[in-house]
Amino acid sequence: MLEKYLTAEMVQFKADSENWQEAIKLAAEPLVQHHFVEPKYVDTMIENVKQFGPYIVLLPKFAMPHARPEDGVNKLGLSLLVLEKAVEFADGKIANVFLVLAAPDKDSHLSLLSELSAVLASEEKVEAMASAKTYQELIKII
Which keywords fit this entry according to its UniProt record (predicted)? Predict the structure, then answer.
């Protein structure tokens, strides 16, 4: 199911990002361009991290920015950004894989999260995602 949402147009590979805010903007760009979310969704994700800290960093190297459905989600979607150079958050946590989740309600994304948790349970797969350079490599991992 992850492959259904993480199509080539929803995945990006970049050398670096100025900071974590820019990384979230870059990661969410495909969702905005394809009208899965409104631009205010991106602003809200950034504001949430400023307010609550880097709770989006679920594992070393892996962040999952998201906000509430009412913050501008139009339909269920995922986008992914892999940075060669990780960005640092205020508390010293770092991430170079940003998987943006756009959930239009409280239930439709649960099967996606279940599949994602199986990937994230493997430290080897997380490491491989963090060093992936192409879409084909990434799809083989997930």
Answer: Cytoplasm, Kinase, Phosphoprotein, Phosphotransferase system, Sugar transport, Transferase, Transport
**Does the annotation mark 109 as catalytic?**
no
3-state secondary structure of 14: strand
Q: Please report, for residues 82, 97, 128, the alpha-carbon distance to residue 16 in angstroms, rounded to integers and kept in the order given.
A: 9, 11, 17
Triad 46, 52, 58: Cα angle to 5°: 80
Q: Report domain extents, the chain.
A: 2-137
Give the type of residue at 6. L
- What is the DSSP track for 17-83? -SSHHHHHHHHHHHHHHTTSB-HHHHHHHHHHHHHH-STTEEETEEE-----GGGTB-S-EEEEEEE
Confidence of residue 109 (pLDDT cuts 50, 70, 90): confident
Catalytic residue among 34, 35, 66, 109: 66
How many angstroms separate the Cα of 119 from the Cα of each of 6, 28, 60, 78?
A: 14, 21, 14, 15
- Least Cα distance to 89 among 40, 132, 126, 46 occurs for 46
CATH number of the domain located at residue range(s) 2-137 in this protein: 3.40.930.10
